[in-house]
Write a structure and sequence with these properties.
Elements: H1 2-31, H2 34-41, E1 53-56, E2 62-66, E3 71-72, H3 82-92, H4 104-117, H5 127-135, H6 143-159, H7 162-172, E4 179-180, H8 182-190, H9 199-206, H10 221-237, H11 243-250, H12 266-283, H13 286-292, H14 295-315, E5 317-321, H15 325-338, E6 345-352, E7 357-361, H16 387-399, E8 406-408, E9 429-431, H17 432-437, H18 441-451, H19 453-461, H20 488-499, E10 503-504, E11 510-515, E12 520-522, E13 529-530, H21 534-550, E14 563-569, E15 575-582, E16 585-592, H22 600-603, H23 607-616
Parallel strand pairs: 1-5, 3-4
Antiparallel strand pairs: 1-2, 5-11, 6-7, 6-16, 8-9, 10-13, 11-12, 14-15, 15-16
Helix pairs in contact: 1-4, 3-9, 3-10, 5-6, 5-7, 9-10, 10-11, 12-14, 13-14, 15-23, 16-18, 16-19, 16-21
């Protein structure tokens, strides 16, 4: 009895308070600038609901949906089906298009209903108030929250049209299972867009937000169907449907068709996330800021860049890529098929040479999304695979010698650096072609010494190897002896120069980034650089061809209009490489262990070449 009396008194006081507040707001609106009053107590910034972003392959097929906690596919008002709007207006706020954010008659009606049942049976929140609660406030059942809700709702009605408010409401409501907004709910529960739903399906989904856990269709479908029937009754009462439509709809069977998040090709998509950050850094000046900043300030710049990337993703973008799914799958299968031991890893990169587009990139054997990516994050010693770029092409360009010119292949020693050929053999004077195709070491060091270290590295600098440092400017670099190494992506894109008449253009996976309406936001600029002339490039292609037909790379040979490349093996067999070109594609394969260790036991099998051959076949 005492509890009932307390509830009654409290409820009476609340209703009186709310009613007086409503009168007060209306009176102040007449006598004073209401905006100045509300600005003191209600701070509403422009509302931006997050929405999903998307990654597409070269054919326009969706390969990855990007979202974190909130799976939302934002629909503008004009694309929201009228039946969806009708369902929520009929059940949540019939006077939505008439009130100012709060509904005094609904407050009184709810009070009388709750008083009759001596409990909270009915709420009085308008759609605007519910939107406020979803975005700005908590779900706590307190008077303070209710007052804030009214104030925010009134302010919101001053800022936005009714159409915009119902649009934001329908896109913000929670449908359980991480789904927000009606369109995402439609695609999650029925695997189709809201425009394709029947009235019964619209009413069924509209039931969930009232109590998402209780009306979760996956676990409590019977509960959902009970409220679906109630929603249809309210729509009938509101005259948005007639008796005939009601009878037809109420008997319709509901069949869920749950969809899964699209998340394919983790190797490639992980790289695209990295490249997106690079693209934004380039276009919006973060890269330039970083390069000019002190080490203390660089971490702050990187943090701001990451925040900017996440903001764009939450706003909703489309990332169009050059991914060729067939080549990507072939690359992964070739690696999994040919690597015998669990601790041996590999990465492959395939670039379409005419367009300089990355069509495939693998992160490692059995790669998981956002793990360490060996395609662009692993920096390893390139061995003899560096010779075409640092040694032979610069030498041909500087001295205009032929491939048949002579070079000494005996032992070499300078300043206590005394490299040997494989097996310690000495070959006397040989042609450049012979030295190259058999990957003799001492001729390469002699050539680098003759060309000049600074001169040769000036050519190499064109390719933008990110971890080349001043300490690398020494003769051991001729054999791949670098401080930090080179990534498979960097080395492969450098080799595209041979496929493109001596012109280097950095390779990318992203074709363009657009907003959800298709307006272009970002594209990579074209910046081709002539590294060496056509004559030198033709000589290099002839040398690369000899490696495959007569030299260390014979395992990759296959019928083709052109095929050529270069092997690379580091000291103690820690890394094995093959990078080359065939028809319109340039590809690179690295094989090794994450913690460098000898691969001598499998070296003769030429696994790096077998993988390359299968990919390029």
């Amino acid at each position: 009895m005492r509890n009932g009396t307390g509830f009654f008194i409290t409820a009476i006081l609340l209703v009186i308070f709310l009613y007086v507040l409503v009168i007060f707001v209306d009176e102040v609106a007449v006598s004073k600038n209401i905006q100045s009053v509300f600005d003191e107590h209600v701070d509403i910034k422009e509302i931006h609901l997050s929405t999903n972003s998307y990654v597409y392959d070269r054919h326009g097929n969706l390969i990855s949906e990007i979202y974190q906690a909130e799976n939302r596919k934002y629909l503008p008002f004009e694309k929201i089906p009228q039946t969806v709007i009708d369902a929520f207006i009929a059940t949540e706020d019939r006077r939505f298009f008439d009130h100012k954010g709060y509904d005094p008659s609904a407050i009184l009606r709810a009070f009388l209903t709750n008083l009759k049942h001596n409990s909270i049976e009915e709420g009085a929140s308008t759609v605007t108030q519910q939107l406020v609660r979803n975005i700005f406030l908590s779900q706590d059942q307190t008077y303070n929250r209710k007052l804030s809700e009214l104030l925010y709702a009134y302010k919101l009605e001053q800022m936005y049209s009714k159409e915009k408010i119902i649009e934001m409401y329908i896109n913000s409501i929670f449908f359980h299972n991480g789904v927000y907004g009606f369109e995402a709910a439609s695609q999650f529960y029925f695997s189709k867009s809201s425009a394709e739903l029947t009235l019964a399906e619209v009413a069924f989904l509209s039931a969930i937000p009232n109590n998402p856990a209780h009306y979760n269709p996956i676990k409590n479908k019977e509960n959902t169907q009970l409220r679906q029937k109630w929603i249809l009754e309210k729509m009938l009462e509101s005259n948005v449907i007639d008796e005939h439509v009601y009878e037809e709809t109420i008997d319709e069977d509901i069949h869920l068709s749950l969809s899964k998040k699209v998340d394919l090709y983790p190797d490639y998509v992980t790289y695209i996330h990295y490249e997106l950050t690079e693209l934004i850094a380039e276009k919006e000046g973060y890269k330039q800021q970083f390069e000019r900043a002190t080490p203390e300030d660089q971490s702050s710049i990187l943090e701001k860049l990451e925040q900017r990337v996440q903001l764009l993703i939450k706003k909703g973008i489309k990332i169009e890529t050059a991914l060729d799914p067939d080549i990507q799958v072939t690359s992964i299968k070739a690696i999994q098929k040919n690597l015998p031991n669990n601790d041996i890893e590999s990465s492959a990169v395939v670039i379409h040479s005419p367009t300089n587009e990355i069509v495939a990139i693998t992160g490692g054997k059995n790669y998981k999304k956002f793990d360490f990516h060996r395609g662009f994050q692993a920096f390893r010693q390139p061995g003899s695979a560096i010779k075409p770029l640092l040694v032979y092409a610069p030498y041909l360009a500087e001295f205009a010698v032929s491939n048949q010119s002579s070079i000494n292949a005996n032992n070499f020693c300078k300043n206590k650096y005394c490299p040997k050929n494989f097996g310690g053999k000495q070959y006397g004077n040989v042609t450049l072609e012979t030295a190259f195709k058999h990957s003799f070491n001492t001729p390469a060091v002699r050539i680098l010494d003759r060309t000049g270290i600074d001169t040769s590295f000036r050519y190499l600098k064109t390719f933008g190897f990110s971890k080349i440092v001043a300490a690398d400017y020494k003769l051991p670099a001729a054999l791949g002896g670098l401080t930090n190494g080179i990534s498979p992506l960097e080395l492969t894109q450098a080799y595209t120069t041979f496929a493109n008449d001596g012109v280097y253009q950095r390779s990318y996976g992203i074709r363009r980034v657009t907003d959800l309406e298709g307006n272009i936001l970002y594209e990579w600029p074209e910046s081709p650089k002539q590294v060496w002339n056509l004559s030198v490039n033709q000589q290099m292609k002839a040398l690369l061809y000899k490696v495959v037909t007569e030299g260390t790379g014979k395992k990759v040979n296959q019928p083709s209009t052109y095929i050529g490349g270069k092997t690379g093996t580091t000291n103690s067999y820690h890394d094995m490489w093959f990078v080359g070109i065939r028809n319109d594609y340039t590809a690179g394969v690295w094989v090794g262990k994450d913690r460098p260790a000898s691969l001598q036991s499998i070296y003769e099998r030429g696994l790096h070449m077998l993988i390359w051959r299968e990919i390029m076949r």
